[in-house]
Amino acid sequence: MINCTLIHLNEQKYMGISTQIFFRDHDVVDFKQLQQDVARADILNVDPTEHFMALDSDFQPESFRYAPLVPVTAFSDGDFFRYTREAGEYYCFPVQLKELNPKWFQACFSFMEQQNMQVDRSFDLEYYPEGYLEQMRSGAVDFPAQTIEMLFRKLPM
After folding, report:
1. How far apart are CA 52 and CA 74, in angstroms?
2. What is the pLDDT of residues 38-55, one digit of tens each?
3. CA quadruple 41, 130, 98, 10: dihedral sign
4. Calpha distance 20→83 (Å, rounded)
5. Nearest-CA neighbor of 125 among 146, 100, 103?
6. Least CB-packed of 19, 51, 117, 129 within 10 Å?
7. What is the mean predicted confidence (pLDDT) over 22-33?
8. Pick from 137, 12, 148: which is nearest to 71 by CA?
9. What is the tens place of the pLDDT at every residue in 85-136?
10. Taking Cα atoms as reference points, which of 87, 68, 88 lies closest to residue 15?
11. What CA–CA distance (Å, rounded) separates 137 from 150?
12. How far is 150 from 95, CA to CA, in rounded Å?
């Protein structure tokens, strides 16, 4: 069963590390380690009031880019990937990380098509619960059982 809500988010700056992931390697990639690397990185101006996110983008036939992101109040120097989440409405789908796979995405996209939801399919956002960044830094996250929200930016009709 797919659940969905519509939420409004404000513009927010993020910094992180972007990695190319080949679909053939998806099941052996340690996404938790990629997130811990970013959570423990020397990123300045961390905004403790905002949620940790990850960006999936640059979808190609054989790969995509995965970027765990730390919320910041301002961009700082460094070689970190920079991303600004646009203000607007986002469709929000709760999902456990262990269920987040191509089959889930296929069901989600089918649901959105049936409901005539117009979304920007060039990217999606993994939106983590409050306190996740601190849990990731300490290693206290039960990664596969963690429930997150997948966000898709709503396009104007």
Report:
1. 15
2. 999 999 999 999 999 999
3. negative
4. 16
5. 100
6. 129
7. 89
8. 12
9. 999 999 999 999 888 887 898 999 999 999 999 999 999 999 999 989 888 8
10. 68
11. 22
12. 7
Q: Give me 87's structure tokens.
A: 């203000």
List domains and CATH numbers for the chain. Answer: 5-153 (3.20.80.10)
Provide the token pair at 11.
Answer: 């513009």
Alpha carbons 78 and 72: distance in angstroms, whole number:
13
Q: What CA–CA distance (Å, rounded) separates 136 from 98?
A: 17
- Give me the DSSP letters along the chain: ----EEEEE--EEEEE--EEEEGGGGGG--HHHHHHHHHTS---SB-TTS--EEEEE---SSEEEEEEEEEESS--SSS-EEEEEPSEEEEEEEEEGGG-SHHHHHHHHHHHHHTT--B-TTEEEEEPPTTHHHHHHHT---GGG-EEEEEEEBPP-
Which tops the pLDDT comparison, 144 or 93?
93
155: amino acid identity, one letter: L
